[in-house]
Specification:
Blueprint lengths: L5 H9 L7 H16 L6 H10 L6 H10 L39 E11 L2 E10 L4 E8 L4 H15 L6 E4 L3 H4 L1 H9 L3 E4 L9 H13 L9 H17 L7
Helix pairs in contact: 3-4
């Protein structure tokens, strides 16, 4: 029933039991819980930061040993893929950032992008707006259609939340949603300046791409996504985890 041989059982009886203190047991349980809450995305570096923040005096090598002993292993991410393409009839804005992702205050530079999310009922599309100063997602919208309305609604939510001053820079790729007349008109009404990266250059919007990588490979891909409604709720759950629990080295 237990899948253990007789010889293995008797060999286990002869070995002295390893003595584990109560503090060590609590540490093991805490590491397991933190790893589970992150859906298996916390590596030993981030685990050390979380534990030290909670008051544990512990080093990286000790955490790495414990995680290996508990068989807590983070899965690697897949490579970047291009998700949006521009219509050549639409105009393109200059790249005002040039990969400078560290503004000196909030509401100076926002960045946005769209990503694909697969469910058992079909595709979903997520548009986000990030304040590069704090890496906070200030607006997002998810829908089963990847239209200009998708990115417009994400920006409207961000603007209503933050009420940024005139002259804010919004950086994106050259996807058809961001180069459309409808979106340019919305930016103009908010007195927001557009900035766009080069074609297929993921590093021109690296911070948002990193967020999408964390969302998918640290969270969404860890569980089955049977329906579009389940996906919406799970994205909202990650936003809460991203805001309140996940550590941000940039901050």
């Amino acid at each position: 029933m237990m899948g253990v041989s007789k010889s293995g059982y008797y060999d286990w009886l002869k070995r002295p039991a390893a003595v584990i203190s109560l503090d060590t047991l609590k540490l093991y349980r805490r590491i397991r819980k933190l790893f589970k809450e992150s859906r298996g995305s916390l590596g030993n570096r981030e685990m050390v930061k979380k534990l030290r923040k909670e008051g544990y005096q512990i080093g990286r090598y000790q955490v790495r040993y414990i995680m290996r002993r508990l068989r807590l292993k983070v899965t690697q991410r897949v490579a970047y893929k291009i998700t949006t393409k521009r219509k050549h009839a639409d105009s393109v804005a200059d790249n005002l950032l040039n990969q400078n992702f560290n503004p000196t205050a909030a509401n100076q530079i926002w960045a946005g992008d769209v990503t694909y999310l697969k469910t058992g009922e079909g595709w979903m599309y997520l548009a986000v707006v990030m304040d590069l100063y704090s890496r906070r997602i200030v607006g997002w919208h998810i829908d089963k259609r990847m239209t200009t309305d998708l990115v417009c609604k994400a920006l409207i939510k961000a603007y209503n939340l933050r009420q940024p001053p005139k002259g804010l820079v919004f950086h994106s790729d050259r996807g058809s949603q961001y180069t459309s007349k409808q979106y340019r008109k919305l930016l103009l009404s908010y007195s927001i300046r557009a900035s766009m990266g080069d074609v297929g250059a993921c590093w021109d919007n690296a911070v948002v791409e990193r967020f999408f990588g964390s969302l998918k490979h640290d969270w969404l891909f860890k569980v089955n996504q049977p329906t579009r409604e389940f996906m919406k709720q799970d994205v909202a759950a990650y936003m809460k985890y991203y805001y309140l629990e996940r550590l941000h080295s940039a901050n």
